Amino acid sequence: MDNVRIGIIGVGGMGSAHANSMKDVPRATLTAICDIDEAVCAAKAEAFGVPGFTKHTELLDSDLVDAVIVATPHYFHPPIAIDAWSRGMHVLSEKPISVTVKAADEMIAAWRKSGLKFSVMYQMRTEAIYIEAKRIIDSGALGEIYRTCMVMGWYRSQAYYDSGGWRATWTGEGGGVLINQAPHLLDIFTWLAGLPAAIHGEVRTNLHDIEVEDEAFAVLTYPNGAHGYLYTSTTEAPEAHLIEISGDKGKLRIQDGKIRLWTVDTPVRQHNRESEEMWSSPRGTEVAVDLRETDSGHRAITANFVRAILDGEPLIAPGEEGLNAMEMINGMILSGKTGEKVSVPVDRDRYEALLAELRASSQGKSRLREQRVTDPQHQ
After folding, report:
1. Strand, coil or helix: what is 93?
2. Strands 4-9 and 67-70, how do they pair?
3. Do 64 and 150 belong to one domain?
4. By the 8 A CB rule, do 217 and 152 touch?
5. Which helix (H) or strand (E) holds 324?
6. Are residues 134 and 111 in the same domain?
7. What is d(CA 194, CA 173) in angstroms, rounded to the nearest whole number?
8. What CATH number should be reported for the domain holding residue 84?
9. Alpha-carbon gap, residue 146 to 356, rounded angstroms
10. pLDDT digits 0-9 by tens, 46-96
11. Chain centre distance of CA 125
12. What secondary structure letter does DSSP report for 297?
């Protein structure tokens, strides 16, 4: 095989952006689309000049595709992916890979059994700033990490939440800001700093008329005793992005598209142990960080997925690493709803039980103005 035939399942939103960019992905061809909305399916099939299907199994059984991009609402990612692997097809899933850690486990188990490729659309991993941050941390330049911080203050209007019956509901989406907007930065945060051992979180609906959280925050405890703080919302303007990781030998800060690195002349623990001066402290020096130009964005993840299939190239965003963000999402919701500190890995059965209760209490939407419009940033 020297070309990968790709089908896209779910083209009412982000899937259309992926379809539009397929012409720019070397050795890949869009050969089919699927959407449960018959009108959307027909319109997109005509627009992209490919066959359209209203059932994902029909697309998978069509003999038209070698791989699929799954861009449906979250709950459908695992079953569609599992169906694809059972038919010998590779899978690139939109984020998050699932709604629960248990479903993610089942998804990962099916992928391992298949021997096929599994990637997740975490395109922020392709950005130069995060690639360099990962290199710095992996090099040991910060030493042992003892503090982390992530702040993601985003904004979404009520009109955004009113645009679909599935949005911001326990039955349709399985959560709010944590499962929709936060996964990208949660992926980067855990990619750089690792998973905590425990989460003590709070979730609340602060601004919007929705049943799920639009704000979440937590104190984190890591296996080595380090502590962290995490905040995410869709209630803040202008938007804020911050990741800060402090270690024994230095500090890394990524804020609003810029990266800064400091190192100290003597590791903190060593200075504390050896210095005899009452008011002395390790001297910090800012170090210039050189960023290499990279091919970034959604297209870069898709192109890497294609090369992984054809050439065996390592995946930038392996699908199984999508579990890390799910541990954070489920852990924060479970802690927030119970008021208890939650261990990581999250108790699978306990979270399933909580989500079942939340789904049962879901009231649906009293206000709805359907819109299926792709984020202009990704058109």
Report:
1. strand
2. parallel
3. no
4. no
5. helix 322-338
6. no
7. 26
8. 3.40.50.720
9. 36
10. 999 999 999 999 999 999 999 999 999 999 999 999 999 999 999 999 999
11. 10
12. S
- The enclosing domain of 261 has a CATH number of 3.30.360.10
Q: Do both 288 and 302 map to the same domain?
A: no
What confidence tens digit (pLDDT) does each residue in 248-283 have?
999 999 999 999 999 999 999 999 999 999 999 999
Spatial strand order of the sheet with 4-9 comes to: 52-53, 28-34, 4-9, 67-70, 90-93, 118-120
- Residue 101 and residue 326 in contact, taking contact as beta carbons nearer than 8 Å: yes
DSSP per-residue string spanning 155-188: E--HHHHHT-TTTT-TTTTS-SHHHHTTHHHHHH
Query: Which residues, other chains included, contact 260 with Cβ-Cβ below 8 Å and sequence gap of 6+?
Result: 252, 253, 254, 286, 289
Mean pLDDT of 102-115: 98
Helix (H) or strand (E) holding 106: helix 101-114
SS (H, E, C) 206-274: CCCCCCCCCEEEEEEECCCCCEEEEEEECEEEEEEEEEEEEECCEEEEEECCEEEEEEECCCHHHHHHH
User: 99 is in which domain, residue-wise?
Assistant: 4-124+296-318
- What does the buried/exposed string (b/e) look like for 28-45 if buried means 16 or more CB atoms within 10 Å of the residue's CB? bebbbbbbbeeebbebbb
Residues 184 and 265 in one domain: yes
Judge whether 376 lies within some domain.
no
Token duo for residue 22: 């397929």
Is the previous residue joined to 223 through a cis bond, with omega within 30 degrees of 0? no
Whether the per-residue pLDDT at 100 is higher than 50: the answer is yes
pLDDT value at residue 375: 62
